[in-house]
Amino acid sequence: MRIRARFRKTEKAIYISHLNLIRIFERSARRADLPLDYSKGFNPRPKISFASALPLGVSSEDEYVDFDLKKPVMPEEFECRFNCAVPDGLKLETTWSIPDSQPALMAEVGWAVYQVRTHLTGGQTPDERNLCAGIIRGFLSQSSIALTKRTKSQSIEIDARPLIKDIGVEKINGGLVLLSMMVAHGNRGTIKPVEVIVAINRYAKELGSDIALDMEDMRVHRSRLLKHDGGNFRHSVA
Amino acid sequence: MSYLGLQILYNIINSIDDVLCERVFAPWVDMEDLMRSRGMPLFSLENKVPLSEFDIIGFSLQYEMAYTNLLNMLSLSHIPLRSSNRDERFPLIIAGGPCAFNPEPLAAFIDVIFLGEAEDAVTEIINVVRDWKRGREKHKSQLLMELSKIPGVYVPGFYGVQYKADGTIGEVTPNVSGIQREVTKRVVIDLDRTKYPVKQIVPLIDTVHDRATMEIFRGCTRGCRFCQAGIVYRPIRERKPGVVKQLAADILAHTGYEELALTSLSSSDYSCISSLVDDLASSLAAKGVGLSLPSLRVDAFSVDLAKQIQKVRKSGLTFAPEAGTQRLRDVINKNVTEEDLLEAARSAFEAGWDRLKLYFMIGLPTETYEDLEGIADLAHSVIELHRKVRGNKTPAINVSVSSFVPKPHTPFQWEPQLSPEELINRQKFLRTRLRFKGMEFNWHDAGVSFYEAVFSRGDRRLANVLESALSKGCKFDAWTDHFMPGVWQEAFREAGVDPCFYANRARRPDEILPWDHLKTGVSRAYLLEERRKALRGISTSDCRSQPCTGCEACDTLGVRMDLKEE
Fold first, then answer.
1. Sign of the C-alpha dihedral, residues B32, B38, B39, B40?
2. Is 90 exceeded by the pLDDT of residue A124?
3. Longest Cα–Cα distance in chain B
4. How far is the alpha carbon of B169 from chain A, nearest alpha carbon, in Å?
5. Which end of chain B has less Cβ packing within 10 Å, N or C?
6. Can you tell me the mean pLDDT for A186-204?
7. Structure pTM?
8. For A2-71, what is the HEC assignment?
9. Is the CB of A43 less than 8 angstroms away from the CB of B313?
10. Which helix (H) or strand (E) holds A117?
C-alpha cells in the first residue's frame, strides 16, 4: 500500500541534506515500527519517493513524500507514529493513502513558490520600496533573461524568463526585503531562487543602480509545491 | 561517533540525576577560523554551552596524532593548556582511553588520567567532584588528592621524573605523600551486569561507522606481539548470547538503524559466534537489518559465517595477515597460515565477494625484503584464487600497508622503529611488486608513522614540543593534507629534543620506561619472555582454549577470564 504525506522541514532541520533526509525517514519509520517496503536485489533501499529534493538551508512547509508499505497501516496511525519518531524540525502535516496507479510525485511537480528574506546593499534611499519594486518590474518586463546553468560537466545558456511566473515584493523595511516568487520546478525546467536573485542583481547593475540584494545572509523558504497545471498536491477530503 | 566508549560513558553519566553530559568534537579548520574571527569559544553540541562552563571535560586518547587537536580544543575554549595554570575556576581536565597507558607527553596538560574501563569509576569520579564542590575545601589540589584515591586514577602532577645523563629515565616517583608508586588499570568484572547503551545516538549527518554497535566481548588473548589492545584489555570477558540478543533488539528498536555490528577485538573468537550469528541473521533479515562482523580473524572465517553476514547486504571484508611469510608471522605471533588466508579468501569469493581488504605491516622486528616479497606473493595468490573461483569478474583486492609503531606495554615496546627513509624504501619496493590488475595498494605516510612512534613511547619532555607545534599551527596531524612535517621538525629542533631518541632507539631491557609506573596487569617479565620467544620465532598459544601462558593479568587484577556457553 502507498501512503502520501505532506511534511514540513524547518528550524534546525534545514541543515539536513536531502540524502541524509532519506536515511532519517527510513530510520524514523523503523523506530516507529512502520513496515516500509524495500527494493529487491543487491542493496535493498526503502521505497520512499520525494516530490523534490530541498537544497540545504532551504526550509519548507509544503513538501511531499510517498511511502510504500509491506502491510497496510491506517494513515492517521502512520502519521502519529512517524511524527513521534522523527527528529525536531521535521513533521508530517497530513497523511493519506493513494492508489499505486497515481503518478509519481517527481513527475507531477511543475512549479514552486518561495519566500526569500534578505536585505538591500548599496544605495540606501528613503524610497527603497519603490526603487526595488521598480527594478523587479523592469526585470520581469524583459522578454528574455539570459542565465547560465552549470552542471558538473558543462555550462549552458538558457532563457530564464519563461521559468519565472511572478516575483512580488512583500515587504521592505529599513533595508530588510521579503520577496515572494513563483518559479518553474520539475522535469520541464527548474530555476532556483538564488539564480533569480543573481539575475536581478545583474539587471540592476546593468541599469546603473548600485542597489543589490544580499546573498550572504539570505534565507529561502518554500511555501508551495505545485503541479504543472498550477494545481496543488494537497489531499482534498471529500 | 565511531568510538563506543563515548556512547557508554555518555549514557551512564546522563542517567545520573543531577549530572549532564554533552559532547564536543574538534571543529574543522574552516569552522575554527570563523569561530576565532568572531571570538566564539568552543561549545558543546547539545545545548551550545561553552566548554569553560562545564565542571569536567573528558578526552578519550585514541591516537597520538590527535594530541595537538586536544590542546587546540582547550585553546579554542579559552582554557589554559597547562594544568599548573588552571585553578578551581576552570574545568577539571580528565583523559582516558588506550593512549592513557602512556600519557606522559600530555602529563603537563591533563589534570587526571584514567586507566582502563570507566563504567564504574566514572560515577566514583563524579561523586568525588560533587562532594568537593559542596565542601569547604576549594583548592584544586584537594580535589586531585581525593580523586587519586580512586583505583585506576593517575594524577600526573603528583609524580616527578628524574633523567639520567644519557637521556633515559632515572626514576618516576610520587612527589606528594600518600600517593602510590604505581597505578593499575580498572577492569569491569561482569559485562552482563554493566550498563550498555541502548539509546545510541543516531547522527543526522554522515559519520563513520554509522550503525548500531553491540559489544559482544572485551579482551583478546591471541597474543599478537605488536598489539597493545591485546594486552590492555585483558582478561577476556564475554556477554551472554541471550543478553546480546536482547540488547541488540532494544538498540535497533530505539535507533531504527539498518545495520548492526557485533564488535570486539576478534569477533569470530566469541564462544557462541555461530549460534549467535544464526539466530540474529534470521531475525535481522526479516526486518531488513544487515549484520556486520568487523575484526574477523583469517583463521576463523568460514563460508557459513560469510553467508550469514551478507544476508541483507554485503559489508566490506577485511583480513589482516600482517606479515608476508610464516617465519615473520611466527615472530609476531600472528598464528595464521597461508592456507588459512587462502581458505578465508576462497570462502569469501565462493559466497560472492569480489572485494577484499588485506592489512599488512612493514618494519616489523626481524623483517627482511624476503618478507616483503611474501606480501606480494600472498596478494598474487589471492588474485589467482579469485580468478579460479569468480572467473572473469574483476576483483578489487586492496592491500593496505601500515608501518610498525612499537607500542608501550607490548613485547615489542623495546624495539626501534625503522627510519622514515627505510620505511619509504620498503613502500616503494612493495609498490613495484603490487602493480597488478584488480589490486590496489595503500600505504601510510611514513612521516606520520614516525611521529606516532615518537609520541607513543614519549615522555614529559615532549610537552614543550607539543605546545610549540600547536602555536606554529599544527593540528589534524592524522590528516595527510594538514600534517606539516617541516613544522614538527622545527618544533623539535627549537625545543632541543631529538625525536629519533624516541622512535628509532632500541630500549635496553633494564631501562626504566616512561610508562613503567602504569600497570595493565600483564607483567613485565611476561613481555620480556614474549620478546625472547619472538626473536626465536617461537609461538605462544591462546589461553582461551589452551593452558594459561602466565601473563599474570587475572591474578593481578583479581578478574577471571569469563567465557559463555551456547
1. negative
2. no
3. 77
4. 53
5. C
6. 93
7. 0.93
8. EEEEEEEECHHHHHCCHHHHHHHHHHHHHHCCCCECECCCCCCCECEEECCCCCCCCEEEEEEEEEEECC
9. yes
10. strand A109-121
Residue B255 to residue A29, Cβ atoms within 8 A? no
Q: What pLDDT sits at residue B49?
A: 98
Out of A173-177, B189-193, B402-406, least confident range: A173-177
**Eight-class DSSP state of B65:** G
Say whether B154 sits in a helix, a strand or coil: strand
DSSP H helices in B20-108: 29-37, 67-76
Cβ–Cβ contact A39 with B under 8 A: no
Rounded to 5 degrees, φ, ψ at A41 are 100, -155
Cis ω before B416 (30° cut-off from 0): no
- Are residues A214 and A118 in contact, defined by beta-carbon separation less than 8 angstroms? yes
Interatomic CA distance for residues A159 and A157, integer angstroms: 7
Query: Across the interface, which of A16, A27, A38 has its CB nearest the CB of B202?
Result: A27
**Neighbour-count burial of B209, counting CB atoms closer than 10 A to its CB (0-12 exposed, 13-18 middle, 19+ buried):** middle
Nearest to A114 by CA among A149, A166, A171, A161: A166
Q: Using 50, 70 and 90 to split pLDDT, how confident is the model at B307?
A: confident
Per-residue pLDDT band at A171 (split at 50, 70, 90): confident
- Which H helix or E strand runs over A179? strand A176-184
Q: What is the CA radius of gyration of chain A?
A: 20
Residue B30, strand partner residues: none
Is it the case that residue A238 has pLDDT exceeding 60? no
Query: Rounded distance, CA B445 to CA B478, Å?
Result: 10
Comparing CB atoms, the residue among A17, A31, A42 nearest residue B256 is A31
Handedness of CA B79, B80, B82, B83 (dihedral sign): negative
Name the residue among B14, B80, B71, B79 with its Cα closest to residue B47.
B14
Show residues of chain B in contact with A36, CB under 8 Å: 288
Instruction: Give A123's pLDDT tier (boundaries 50, 70, 90).
Output: low
Q: Which residues of A touch B31 (CB under 8 A)?
A: none
For the segment B277-301, the average pLDDT, to the nearest whole number, is: 84
| Buried-state track A17-29, b at ≥16 Cβ within 10 A, e below 16 | beeebbbbbbbbb
pLDDT, position B400: 96
- Which residues, 6 or more positions from B56, have their beta carbon under 8 angstroms from its beta carbon? B91, B92, B93, B94, B125, B126, B129
- A154 has pLDDT over 60: yes
List B260's β-bridge partners, or say none: B212, B291
Which H or E element spans position B128?
A: helix B121-134
What are B25-49's pLDDT values in tens digits? 999 999 999 999 999 999 999 999 9
Q: Which of A179, A199, A78 is nearest to A132 (CA)?
A: A179
CA-to-CA dists, residue B276 to B240, B245, B272, B302, angstroms: 10, 8, 6, 15
User: What are the pLDDT digits (tens) for B109-121?
Assistant: 999 999 999 999 9
Distance in angstroms (rounded) separating the CA atoms of residues A51 and B60: 43
Q: Give the burial class of B478: count Cβ atoms within 10 A of its Cβ; 0-12 exposed, 13-18 middle, 19 or more buried.
A: middle
B318-355 burial: b if 16+ Cβ within 10 Å, else e: bbbbbbbbbebbbbbbbbbebebbbbbbbbbbebebbb
> What DSSP string runs through B490-517?
HHHHHHT--THHHHTPPPPTTSBPTTTT
CA-based diameter of chain A, in Å?
64
Q: How confident is the model at residue B323 (pLDDT cuts 50, 70, 90)?
A: very high
C-alpha gyration radius of chain B: 24
Contact B256 A42 (CB under 8 A): no
Give the per-residue pLDDT at B304: 74
Q: A38 vs B288: CB contact, 8 Å cut-off?
A: yes
